[in-house]
Amino acid sequence: MLEQRYRWKNKHIREHVSVIDGKLSPTILLQNARYLNQVLRKWITANIWIYEDRIVYVGEKLPENTGNCEIIDCKGQLLVPGYIEPHAHPFHLYNPHSLARYASQFGTTTLINDNMALVLQLDKKKAFSLMRELRNIPTTMYWWCRFDSQTEILDEVDTFSHANVKSWLEHDAVLQGGELTGWPKLVDGDDLMLHWIQESKRMRKKIEGHFPGASEKTLAKMTLFGADCDHEAISGKEVYDRLMQGYMVSLRHSSIRPDLPVLLDEIHELGIEHYDRFIFNTDGSSASFYEQGIIDNMIRIAIEKGVPVVDAYNMATINVARYYNLEYLHGNIATGRVANINFLSDEKNPTPVSVLAKGKWVKRDEENVDVYEEINWETHGLEPLKIDWDLTNDDMQFSMPFGIQMESSVITKPYSISIDVNHDELPNTHDECFFMLIDKEGNWRTNTVLKGFANDLPGLASSFTNTGDIVLIGKNKNEMMRAFRRLKEIGGGIVFSENEEIVLEVQLPLNGVMSDKKVEELIIDEKKLSSYLVERGYRFNDPVYSLLFFTSTHLPYIRVTQQGMYDVMNKMVLFPTIMR
């Protein structure tokens, strides 16, 4: 549990009241501030007093005591609350700290984060210690509690034991259960998962769905089970169906599904004109996708698509806060709230020129103010992979009767292998590659053929997968092994080998799944990676997500998991892993 049970201790609240009484000076005074008042639904002018990380007064009065106060005249600017990202996957090569730092520059000052990487990569004690340290950064960090691994792991019963899930649910930084990628198990009678949902509800916490393509009947069932929100609508009709079943609808705009413009057009065509049941999310997009912004970009799109300005900002702020029962802390500029404030040059340009996060300047007059202290990752159990085993020629035998065919960045289907794979190298005249998933501890492997990923890729090794196990892909077995050896040397990452040399790598020293670089640097690395793969025949829109999701069973149709080749629709292992 966190060391501090309450957001502010009693002594802090007494200090806040003392500012009102003139006994203490505010730390920041925003004078003549024209801000968005979401109760009145209009822009009004007031003076805003801030003491450390809290807004202590909003109104016409000025403080009696300004002895230790930074006074800012806000004429010519518009103020809105800091934006909230309710569906962050903070381990998409970047890490929770680097994403928070980067997002703050675009005005997103609160992240509600997936805990999957923490559950799969760290023991509970280490995970909670990291969450405790992240509480001290300017960005406000909340978390989910997953109920399943989103794949078929060997020790799922232990990793997602009742004791572990209960500890996560009881954590005061955890706001919701889910997302429910394992909902078919729930429908099939998994009463333990239903119990966890019940516990979430008892604690007044939300349940996030994951229902792509769900019928009206399924949506109704999931509402009865306890789902509160879903982010998987890809059409106006699917948005409408979710609203009809009582859902909060999280509108997505991500690197895999950049759907927001179409969703808004189709919502308007259906005559939906009220926005109180909508929030925004970017669903863990690739780093390069975030070059155009985070939640601020979604506000901009909404305004361009005819959403009233106040509603567009509300969908990024107060709607989220109300949904999570956090309105007393976040989502509006009012007395008592955390001092997360964005300063805009124009109401139709939601990318801020200045940003306050927990009362600290993180951006000032378009310039980054870096107040995010570095983290010692190794103290929390996030360190370079230590691989003390080697691949052998025996490992490079491919005799599976069927392989994996890519239909999109993340959808894979089975197909019958018709080529001769009994060679050390495959020709570039087709788009089939050798594919191997191998245990990061070296205990097991699954070998098959991957069709549709690339037609001229000599060798790739990646520890960036859902489980942290290692994927090898390529036309040339020797180049694949060379890439693997380099991956061992750097302690994890994504490595490409050709012509007997390493030509490109993205180092991921945090357990092989996350970088310790700033997002701005990672964007450069990711673009190089994507360009290289496109040159080698990759034809989809997000190769990083492809690598992540080869092992993920929440999407159809065939996956390679720790248990073997897995049929998602029939929930069965088709070919088990081979022990080494």
Automatic annotation (TrEMBL):
InterPro entries from the UniProt entry: Adenine_deam_C, Amidohydro-rel, Metal-dep_hydrolase_composite, Metal_Hydrolase
Key words of the record: Hydrolase
Lineage: Bacteria, Bacillati, Bacillota, Bacilli, Bacillales
The protein's name: adenine deaminase
E.C. designation(s): 3.5.4.2
Residues covered by the Amidohydrolase-related domain: 79-362
Keyword hit for Hydrolase: yes
Alphabetized PANTHER family for the sequence: ADENINE DEAMINASE YERA-RELATED, N-ACETYLGLUCOSAMINE-6-PHOSPHATE DEACETYLASE
The reaction(s) this protein catalyses: adenine + H2O + H(+) = hypoxanthine + NH4(+)
Domain Adenine deaminase C-terminal: 410-570
Keyword check for Cell membrane: no
GO molecular function: adenine deaminase activity
UniProt similarity note: Belongs to the metallo-dependent hydrolases superfamily. Adenine deaminase family.
